[in-house]
Amino acid sequence: MRTVEVSAAPLAALAAELDEVAARRLTAGEERARRLLAGRTVWNVSAAEGGGVGELLRTMLPYARDGGVDARWLVLDGDAEFFRIAARLHAVMHADPGDGGELGPEEMAHYDRVLGANLEEVRESVASGDVVLLHDPATAGLAPGMRRRGARVIWRCHLGTDAPDGILDRAWAFLEPAVAQADRVVLSRPTYRPGFLEADAVRVIAPSVDPLSPKNRRLDPTAVSRLLADAGLVGGAAVAEQGADGADRPAEPADGAMRAGGPVPPGARTVLQVSRWDRLKDMSGVLIAFAEGFDELPEDVHLLLAGAAVAPHDSAAADVLDGCLEIWQGLEPQVRARAHVACLPTGDREHNALLVNALQRHAAVVVQKSLAEGFGLTVTEALWKGRPVVATAVGGIQDQITDGTNGLLVPDPTDLHGVMTCVARLLAEPAFAERLGQAAHDRVRREFLSDRHLLQYVDLVDELL
Q1: DSSP-derived pairing of the beta strands 408-410 and 389-392
Q2: DSSP class of residue 234?
Q3: Cα distance between residue 52 and residue 463, in whole Å
Q4: What pTM, to 2 d.p., does this model score?
Q5: Closest CA to 429 of 445, 415, 408
Q6: Within a domain: residue 214?
Q7: 241-242 and 248-249 strand pairing
Q8: Which of 80, 101, 243, 380 is 20 to 30 A from 450, alpha carbon to alpha carbon?
């Protein structure tokens, strides 16, 4: 395993974002955590440094360290076959067959062999009484070995689906021997609990967003315009981006950021979906819905689909992106002129996060047309920014949006007409859209910021120790 360095981030800065009651609760939780975990290490183990899990750890662990907790982050080592098995498990946990490969005895033997080697690397580091948080299916097989070391083990599964079937059963059959040995299992929704786990072994902890992270911190309109112009996402003169120290620095080159349609014109109202290039995010469905509802939309409305630049080895993402580009090519010329596809540069993690932040703040309406969703942090991010959101009622999106109160939900995730009807309503009723956006921001402040997330883990550790 390799170590990801974690620096402290001031909890006081997070507390300053909260109301007085929440801030006092956070301070009390900090003191309790320091007492509970004195002399212990909290190990977090993930399959990768990037992705949604990496983003959560990158924001949560610095706060824990500032609170006096020895929080550390380890990333698995593995060969290509191990990560193919992990990716297969990840897909199947969403009831998606993925690459269609096996999850049988040979795969189990390889999985256990790689994790055994990882366990050996930290044998002298993890002490009895430490707390180990294992994130997602790739790490679950470490639970028995960590328990033998005397650690208290929590398996945190960030995945799940509301429609369990035979595909999902394959993943649980593979994972059950290890997961059943964890002291506690943390899920994002109660409906994600498999039958072999008793209810008292499971805790439900929703993810959160950090209001001070590059993806979610405040950006004034000038900064939003500058970021989007620099990246070539919205038309306008490109200028240097201002770094965290206040000094100008060149933005990443915009070449290739727009894959279709060119920059969104300045002054256009943008309907945005920003997601991974993942079949279950249904970017192609959003594009088709826009085309089918095009005649009902005002002439100043443009669609922007934005995802991260596709890594050379990620054939699944490349297939989704290529499918969107093929659909775009087949659109009527007047629709193509108002539909845009972008791949956001990933060479600078902070810059990528700032671009997502700027896109969400720039959008007139944010869409999340997922076919399945574990929780849906892109929805949380847009809600935090006070944007009116149209999303499909799948997974954890249902726990974030109350239809007509802080967003609009489409019950059937395949309902293209329903999505565009909701979008058109928000564009036609700006006062209603603004009310939804304000309610959305307020709900995230109450329920989905880092303070609540941290305190729930303090409660969980208190149970175990």
Answers
A1: parallel
A2: B
A3: 27
A4: 0.92
A5: 408
A6: no
A7: antiparallel
A8: 243
